[in-house]
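Practice problem 4.
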């Protein structure tokens, strides 16, 4: 070993060797290769050191390793089209540009756990401004290491330490090199899109694009997206909004006097039941209810439960559900509206509406903040707080996570620490995530028999749903004990299907049918929608509706007028409500007819009908279709044209100032602390600073484990607040 060490040559020796090789044959090519290696090395090292890309498995690890290379080759190969000193400078400049983009993203990521986007860089963006202020505080001296090689390279060229290649390389060689870069990029993209279908069309998370394709590809992708958005925004005119507002005003329904304003001023809990379908309600496996607690809640005399309520999401899945729930605007026909337009658009969202009526507003989610661009979109929606993964100490422990984030029992329990600090009245949205495809849960958390359809991705569904049900019960139990239950309105909704149409044989078995028809599949799009409050007149309501209708329905109960709002849903409580449910792809359901996958059915009987055989359908189908096409088109133009920025007619709503919000953990905690003094209406403040967390009981095995110091630490920090 020692002998070996002695033999290790000095760096000087290496440099001499490198220089010799570079000098003798094609010096420019060597200089190019050196730069490619340097750019690759810096990027790859920083992927690991400064970003949290979550590359799992050999394919993703391989792509992470590969993905800095193609753009390094493409950009640096530009130098090969020149000769003499110029070509060296060009290579250095492209090394610098890539390094600088890397550097800027490292700083931005450290603060926001997300990548820079063109929208943010453009002036006026709230996050851009905040970053400017705090840049000095987040920079580490080691970040500058990224530029060290560039300084050395400049020195070598300036002080003539390199033999400059006066002839350069042949054009053909330069072209081949660029082509090699492009081919590598395509290979990378090919592998990436088999690992993650819809990577670019659905654009879930900026982290994904960087992980699979690379930081520079992300920059290009983002620039194209931003360009398209800016263009459609530029084309839009105030008259476009006027036309739409006129239409919307003809759709407004009178409120329901039995419900209107009955829950005014109460706290609102919006509970997002991930991938939860309506069929789970009262569903039994081996004689056992899958979700006994949600069933009880569903049948409670103070719960208004809708059993003909449909999800209307498109590719944006959860984010589309959120877009509808918060704004009564549809998601887009492709991609996620929150990802594409959430950062810069003007919205009139539920959090902002309630905030302007004295509510504190907070979103809770155990996944990274950047997913579905929530970190930016929630600012546009007007959320005061966004408690994402970074706020949950337990999230650092892999055992406490499954799939997209914290396990629901832990997530909800650890959310209580923030719930008790929220000044009242508050609007708290809790997004669960454990009941998510592929419905996997560790053994110690499984307390329910799987179904036996033989379809692997289906059979665990009832198990994770059962887990979610237990987690929900634990939360409710705590809220009852801490006094919040009686003082709050609860809205529960399932965001979208859990079992997709690719699993038809399994669906048939679950539903106890031979075979499923398109009508069954349409029915399978039902998700729960429940509103519960002390004193609310409950019951199972058969009105046909969808996620787009949640906002106006809730506003009715809360006594918030929606007359001037540009929304596409309607108040399901209104005596005039008719119930047309458009799906994002243009299909629809009404109480009389269903159009699904190009077939028509009688909604009451499920019988297939055709336009030629059914006179009423013949008349109604084109009318309904025209309405459906119109609302989807109008909703799309509101989003793509950012039309709500033109809305000047409002005296009861003022535009959200995104700059007011800072979701960084330190800022959020500070703000909560401050709020205890300035507005001492939280449960904690009312309890004279004494925490109520000891009232939260969970059987989460991860937390009851006495060897788990993490949890004990949490308990002490929260009760000492
Ligand atoms: C992730 C979660 C999942 O944060 O919201 O989104 P989905 O895959 O259901 O759209
Ligand atoms: Mn979802």
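Answer key:
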């Amino acid at each position: 070993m020692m002998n070996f060490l002695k033999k290790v040559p000095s760096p000087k020796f290496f440099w001499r060797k490198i220089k010799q090789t570079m000098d003798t044959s094609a010096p420019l090519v060597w200089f190019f290769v050196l730069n490619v290696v340097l750019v690759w090395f810096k990027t790859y090292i920083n992927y690991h050191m400064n970003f949290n890309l979550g590359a799992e498995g050999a394919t993703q690890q391989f792509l992470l390793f590969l993905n800095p290379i193609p753009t390094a080759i493409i950009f640096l190969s530009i130098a090969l089209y020149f000769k003499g000193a110029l070509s060296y400078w060009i290579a250095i400049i492209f090394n610098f540009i890539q390094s600088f983009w890397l550097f800027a993203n490292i700083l931005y990521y450290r603060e926001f756990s997300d990548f820079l986007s063109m929208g943010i860089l453009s002036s006026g963006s709230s996050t851009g401004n905040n970053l400017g202020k705090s840049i000095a505080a987040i920079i580490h001296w080691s970040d500058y290491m990224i530029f060290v090689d560039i300084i050395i390279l400049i020195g070598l060229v300036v002080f003539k330490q390199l033999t400059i290649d006066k002839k350069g390389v042949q054009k053909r060689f330069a072209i081949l090199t660029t082509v090699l870069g492009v081919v590598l990029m395509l290979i990378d993209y090919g592998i990436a899109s088999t690992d993650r279908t819809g990577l670019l069309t659905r654009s879930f998370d900026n982290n994904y694009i960087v992980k699979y394709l690379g930081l520079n590809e992300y920059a290009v992708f983002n620039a194209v997206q931003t360009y398209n958005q800016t263009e459609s925004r530029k084309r839009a005119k105030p008259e476009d909004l006027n036309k739409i507002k006129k239409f919307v005003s003809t759709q407004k329904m009178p409120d329901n006097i039995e419900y209107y304003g009955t829950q005014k001023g109460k706290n609102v809990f919006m509970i997002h039941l991930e991938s939860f379908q309506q069929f789970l309600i009262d569903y039994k496996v081996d004689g056992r209810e899958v979700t006994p607690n949600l069933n009880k809640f569903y049948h409670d005399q103070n719960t208004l439960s809708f059993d003909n309520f449909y999800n209307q999401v498109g590719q944006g899945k959860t984010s589309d559900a959120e877009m509808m729930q918060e704004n009564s605007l549809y998601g887009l026909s492709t991609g996620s509206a929150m990802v594409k337009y959430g950062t810069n658009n003007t919205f009139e969202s539920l959090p902002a509406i309630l905030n302007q009526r004295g509510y504190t507003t907070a979103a809770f989610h155990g996944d990274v903040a950047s997913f579905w661009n929530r970190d930016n979109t929630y600012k546009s929606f007007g959320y005061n707080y966004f408690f994402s993964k970074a706020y949950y100490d337990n999230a650092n422990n892999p055992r406490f996570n499954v799939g997209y984030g914290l396990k629901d029992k832990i997530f909800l329990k650890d959310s209580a620490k923030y719930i008790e600090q929220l000044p009242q009245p508050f609007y708290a949205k809790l997004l669960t995530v454990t009941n998510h495809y592929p419905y996997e849960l560790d053994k110690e958390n499984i307390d329910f028999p799987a179904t036996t359809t033989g379809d692997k991705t289906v059979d665990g569904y009832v198990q994770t749903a059962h887990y979610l049900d237990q987690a929900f019960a634990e939360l409710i139990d705590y809220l009852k004990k801490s006094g919040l239950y009686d003082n709050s309105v609860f809205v529960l909704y399932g965001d979208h299907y859990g079992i997709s149409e690719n699993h038809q044989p399994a669906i048939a078995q679950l539903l106890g049918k031979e075979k499923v028809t398109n009508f069954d599949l349409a029915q399978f799009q039902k998700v729960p929608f429940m509103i519960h409050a002390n004193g609310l007149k409950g019951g199972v309501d058969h009105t046909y509706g969808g996620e787009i209708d949640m906002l106006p329905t809730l506003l009715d109960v809360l006594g918030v007028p929606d007359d001037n709002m540009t929304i596409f849903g309607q108040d399901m409580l209104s005596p005039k409500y008719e119930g047309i449910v458009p799906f994002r792809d243009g299909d629809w359901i009404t109480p009389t007819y269903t159009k699904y996958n190009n077939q028509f059915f009688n909604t009451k009987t499920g019988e297939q009908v055709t336009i030629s055989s059914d006179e009423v359908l013949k008349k109604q189908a084109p009318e309904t279709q025209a309405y459906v096409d119109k609302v989807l088109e109008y909703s799309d133009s509101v989003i793509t044209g950012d039309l709500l920025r033109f809305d000047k007619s409002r005296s009861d709503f003022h535009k959200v100032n995104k700059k007011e919000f800072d979701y960084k953990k330190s800022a959020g905690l500070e703000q909560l602390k401050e709020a205890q003094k300035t507005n001492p209406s939280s449960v904690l403040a009312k309890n004279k600073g004494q925490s109520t967390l000891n009232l939260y009981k969970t059987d989460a095995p991860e937390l009851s484990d006495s060897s788990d110091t993490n949890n004990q630490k949490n308990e002490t920090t929260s009760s000492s607040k």
